[in-house]
Amino acid sequence: MDFDERHLRAFLAVAETGSLGRAAAVVNLTQPSLSRMIQAMEQRLGHKLFERQSKGMALTAAGEILLPHARLLAFEMRAARDQLDALRGCAGAWCGWARWPPRCARWWRRRWGRCWRGTRN
User: Fold this and answer.
1) Domain count, the chain
2) pTM here?
3) Is the dihedral of CA 49, 32, 52, 111 positive or negative?
4) Range of 58's domain?
């Protein structure tokens, strides 16, 4: 099974929102590209993860099995990223000339998935 963090985030977004349209907005993709990503993931895993219904998407038995593992993987990846950011001194984030407070830095990481460090004077 080979899928990356983007696939994991896409799966979790669809599972949590129950809709391709809302999930696409969450992961900042178009609906067709998100649908292709989910289909590719289903093909690689050899199982349908979602039932396509008239009122959204519902997890199949395989999707229900994958969901807690996907949440754990996402949590662990976030924790590892945070620890590595702290190791290199990125508890906050630098944006141009100003240091963002940790609260803003957390928002930035949730939104963009990484800590950005601009030029530091």
Assistant:
1) 2
2) 0.70
3) positive
4) 5-87
Most confident of the ranges 32-36, 73-77, 87-91, 95-99: 32-36
Regarding whether 64 and 16 lie in a shared domain, the answer is: yes
Contact 19, 31 (CB under 8 A): no
Q: Give per-residue pLDDT as tens, 15-30.
A: 999 999 999 999 999 9
For residue 101, the 8-state DSSP code is: P
Tokens found for residue 82: 């945070």
Looking at the structure, tell me whether residues 93 and 68 fall in a common domain: no
Which residues are paired to 53 by β-bridges? Answer: 56
Count CB-CB contacts under 10 A for residue 108: 17
> Token digits for 4?
């990356």
Could you give phi then psi for residue 64, rounded to 5 degrees? -65, -35
| Structure-token match 């809302």, residue found | 22
Do 47 and 101 share a domain, yes or no? no
